[in-house]
Hints:
It contains 16 helices and 8 strands. By secondary structure, the protein is mostly helical.
Amino acid sequence: xxxxxxxxxxxxxxxxxxxxxxxxxxxxxxxxxxxxxxxxxxxxxxxxxxxxxxxxxxxxxxxxxxxxxxxxxxxxxxxxxxxxxxxxxxxxxxxxxxxxxxxxxxxxxxxxxxxxxxxxxxxxxxxxxxxxxxxxxxxxxxxxxxxxxxxxxxxxxxxxxxxxxxxxxxxxxxxxxxxxxxxxxxxxxxxxxxxxxxxxxxxxxxxxxxxxxxxxxxxxxxxxxxxxxxxxxxxxxxxxxxxxxxxxxxxxxxxxxxxxxxxxxxxxxxxxxxxxxxxxxxxxxxxxxxxxxxxxxxxxxxxxxxxxxxxxxxxxxxxxxxxxxxxxxxxxxxxxxxxxxxxxxxxxxxxxxxxxxxxxxxxxxxxxxxxxxxxxxxxxxxxxxxxxxxxxxxxxxxxxxxxxxxxxxxxxxxxxxxxxxxxxxxxxx
Length: 429
């Protein structure tokens, strides 16, 4: 029997079996708590579960997402969140589309202002009296100098381009707006002028024919008259050795404005004067001396580079092959020198012509030919003054490409194999 105290503080007896000692005994831990009545391990399962009702799923969910007093439950909140998220995605996409459209529009305008590729052929453009700047754009667009007259009108308004004088101007096809404005900023050409273009790589004889051409040359000029002008001592460059009668290599390829009344001597002198201006700009004499060559020898090398190179990019490599073979004391093996002597470009050389053993035969004789074999342009002169670094000694047309470029090697067996491939493709004579 146990003695316990009742609510009045008096002791009361508890009979054995009514709670007994051990887990069934009334202890301070059996007092009621804030969460429910006292529990006992001997209580029925239904009674012990009462304490868990406070933590059921419904009560927990209501506390987090809302309640009956106006809070939002999860069924209301999730669609709203998805709606906000979708709206942000749409706004982001629209912003990207706007940026892309702006970028493409600006790129289009930039291509109009500065088209891809460099300036093209030189042309003469006539600006009539009283032509507005916007109308100048239409004339330039019709001539192919610029690409878009409407963009020109907008561009020149923003740039505040000065008034353009009436007259004839030398301009280039596919020019940028800036280049066109620069060309129009100089004084126009004298009245009754015409442009005559001397391409790179022509010989002295071919230049005489070009100047006398009724369509491409100067009206009234004849081949005999031009050749006589080329023998005039007043037009001769001092860089030509005294024992060489030709002006070969010093008639600079360029587009020239020929005025009404110009003579053959006037025009030939203009070609030689332009050569001297370019020679001074590229420091021909000083740089030739640094290479251990005379300026005339550099012109000979530049003329061979002009005839042999398939493009401007490989010109320094062609020059390097020439210097390497000269340094090794080997014949250059450039058939273009024999074609020059034959007077044909390009040419097919016979076996007898290849065995001529003349001063222009570089298959059998080492060293340079006696004169330039063509009129070299600025790029080929620069290449002869600054050859690429490399040990190449042979080159042959590259049959894997269609741009006329060459395959370079320092191995003779490799060169022979490349030449066989070229001949098999029918592209090497």
